[in-house]
Amino acid sequence: MNTQYAPQQIEPKWQDYWEKEKLYYASDEDERPKFYALVMFPYPSGDLHMGHMRNYTIGDLIVRYKMMRGYNVMNPMGWDAFGLPAENAALQADVHPKLWTEQNIAAMNAQFYKMGICYDWAREVTSCLPNYYRWTQWIFLQLYQRGLAYKKMAPANWCPSCKTVLANEQVVEGGYCERCGAIVTKKDLEQWFFKITDYADQLLDDLELLEDWPERVRVMQENWIGRSDGVEFRLGVEGHNDEIGAFTTRIDTVYGMTFVVLAPEHPLVEKLTTEQHKAEVEDYVEQARQASEIDRLSAEIEKEGLFIGSYALNPMNGERMPIYVADYVLMTYGTGAIMGVPGHDIRDFAFAKRYGLDIPVVIAPAGWDGKNLEEAYIDEGTMVNSGQFDGLPSRDGIERITDYMEEHGIGERKTHYRLRDWLISRQRYWGAPIPIIYCERCGTVPVPEEELPVILPMDVDFHPTGTGESPLATVPDFVHTTCPRCGSAGRRETDTMDTFVCSSWYYFRYTDPHNDQAPWSKGKADAWLAVDQYTGGVEHAILHLMYSRFFTKVFRDLGLTHIDEPFARLFTQGMITKLNPSTKKVEKMSKSKGNVVPIDDMVNTYGADTARTFILFVGPPELDAEWNDQGVEGSFRFLKRLWRLVMEEASPGKAPHEAERQMRRKTHQTIEKVTADIERFHFNTAVSACMELSNALAAHKDAHGLTPVLEEGLRTLLLLLAPIAPHITEELWSEVGDGEGIHLQAWPEWDEEAAAEEVFTLIVQVNGKLRDKVVVPVTISEDEAKQLALSRERIQRWLEGKTIKKTIYVPGRLVNIVVQ
To answer: Is there a contact between 526 and 561 (Cβ–Cβ < 8 Å)?
Structure first.
């Protein structure tokens, strides 16, 4: 037998075998229970490296494990091939995005193969191909026909470098483009939107259904939707017939209002600004429009504003209040106007201090002495200086004042959301064309479904125009068309769709990828969905996951699916980091930082199984983990020891009964632990348990030779490691296993009796504090445990001069002696 572990020889053999046998290709007719495993499909914008492989390795482990547990597993893969990542990379390389994308798909496919990552390639989808984006366009038409897609003029986040519009979520802290890092500005453009706000309540309320999602992801989505229940009321303006609408969740503080602030974009700013303040306000408004929302809302920046020369009137007491314009108020949230209540809002307090405004107290804290406040009081209290509502608890005051406003036509209960409609227009070339035609006679006309897809032309100068128009606007053969309604000349929409439109429904297409009559068959989608396990980065917590949830609810309402939520269980893995040789800091593995580990180098030196084992062993998978060469070497040594343990011959032997019993106990305890660890995604401790079993088997072999219990342990160890290190276990199984390949074997079951310990460590406490430990038989009775604890010499010292009040026994764990 070959006692030298040579992964470069065995790994390609088994990779070819798995693909030839289509081992991981799912059947729609299989009667086993289904398991839909999915890793977020990648942007094909460059070579993969080991920093990318964590989620794919985790996904592959889950698939192999679930298949051994008897599931019909679907594990498809595809390519999120449209959008800024691919286009920007193609621009840098000066090649057509189509060619760049195709080259990268081929390279990434080969890299998956080398790592032993198995997919059902018969279900592959590529979002930039007409047979896919035909249905992306079809979905757009369904939303349009139901009033969920519309176009309007709006100030858009504009990246001057990428020369395109960005969604709010694509502008990162500091006001930078998440793709290129340029400062984002504002530009007024006609934009297409999806009306995701129509589903705001469902998206928020149904978060309760997602019990198997990380709590932080649910909180991020809850905060992004940002539902606020409050009151929307109207304020008069001195000398004008106009009214200002304001929204607040603390109407109990309305009597403490001393100023009003309008967003720079508010339509009344221009009208209410007096001539004396006009030039200054216009300059301020223009500057504010160029600032990012993140900067405008930042808690680090002092809140500034400008008085516009007009005054509002408090509808509850008639008080006259100055009107300011300030950039920290957004037109897109609430009404674009806020009531300034400095006594009971931290931001308003700072604003009032800066501009010398009154700070009355209208909610008194307990024990208030009537003096001015040193800081805003934002909690509940007793209403004071509030007219007829004085003396009410503030919580009751909210209801009473709201009722009063509704009875007198001043205001009404309203719910507002932070969530805004989804801006899908992109003024870039590499995206799905929006299937709309503009006709002078008929107006906006959707492309008939039978004429889909609207093909993206290839012979295009795809460099951004810089004018706010897509490069498609420069292609006459694309732009000029015929109106499908009246037959006269028409003009195509030249914006393309945000790539998140493509990625918000691909998991449906996987269920029926070759259907040319519909995006999917409802029967096939209902059979496979929801996705049982979805794996990917937490950076998609808001964008992709929110949009996918929205699309799924729309599809449900269209009768295309029965599910309410697309992903039953979500796992977000941590990043792989590595020392950056330039900065000497540990940073996310990235080509730009010069700290990547190429997949080819890793596989050629150590083999894919070593890389997989290290990735899974390096730490809890939900946390960031640092790549280190010593850890890789350690994983390689472990696999070499495993190889020798199985392949080096040993003479038949016979072990004493107790040694056999201990070895079998270790084997079955390891089955139980590894199974539990994989189920709860504790892959690092699962690998550790396998290493411990390997050491125990090696010691048994050295002491007793080849025994039946050793053979059972070796086969068990290989089965447990099969999802982790699939190539070496497949090879070794062909030497020592029974029947078919290892990945077609059933997952091992543990024997409770064999796994049971005969002894355990009994903890002895006095008044809840650890005072002694003693190893006892598992069969010990309660009386025996208590007597033993009381008789221990170390415990006797703690009992001297004290009275025992009671003795508590927790079976299998501890005795606690309560003394006085």
So the answer is: yes
What residues have CB less than 8 Å from 16, skipping those under 6 apart?
A: none
- Compute the distance between CA of residue 553 and CA of residue 560 in angstroms, rounded to an integer: 10
* Tally of residues, the chain: 820
Round to whole Å and give the CA distance between 364 and 382: 5
Q: What does DSSP say about strands 814-819 and 759-766: parallel, antiparallel, or unpaired?
A: parallel
Beta strand pairing status for 228-237 and 243-248? antiparallel
The predicted pLDDT at position 365 comes to: 94
Question: For residue 41, what is the DSSP state?
Answer: P
Name the pTM for this structure: 0.87
For 639-698, the pLDDT digits (tens) are 999 999 999 989 999 999 999 999 999 999 999 999 999 999 999 999 999 999 999 999
Alpha helices in 325-466 (DSSP H): 346-355, 394-407
The structure tokens listed for 331 are 């037109």
Nearest to 770 by CA among 736, 815, 808, 811: 815
Q: Name the β-bridge partners of 337.
A: 262
| DSSP secondary structure letter of residue 706 | B
* Strand runs labelled E in 327-457: 337-340, 363-364, 382-383, 411-416, 422-423, 425-426, 436-439, 443-446
Residue 559 is classified by DSSP as T
Q: How far apart are CA 237 and CA 271, in angstroms?
A: 11
Closest CA to 43 of 709, 539, 658: 539
Could you tell me which residues are beta bridge partners of residue 443? 439
The pLDDT-based confidence of 294 (bands split at 50, 70, 90) is low
Strand-pair partners of 262: 325, 337
Phi/psi of residue 241, nearest 5 degrees: -85, -10
Q: What share of the chain is helix, strand, coil (3-state, %, to 5)?
A: 40, 20, 35
Tell me if the bond preceding 726 is cis, omega within 30° of 0: no
**Digit-coded pLDDT (tens) for 606-625:** 999 999 999 999 999 999 99
Strands of 72-74's sheet in order across = 72-74, 34-39, 533-537, 570-573
In this structure, what token pair is assigned to residue 149?
């897609």
The tokens describing 4, both together, are 């030298």
- The first and second tokens of residue 484, run together, are 């499908």
Helices (H) and strands (E) in the chain, counts: 27, 34
Name 391's Cβ contacts closer than 8 Å, sequence gap at least 6: 382, 383, 384
Q: If DSSP codes are grouped into helix, strand and coil, which group holds residue 516? A: coil
CA distances from 625 to 51, 521, 636 (A): 10, 41, 18
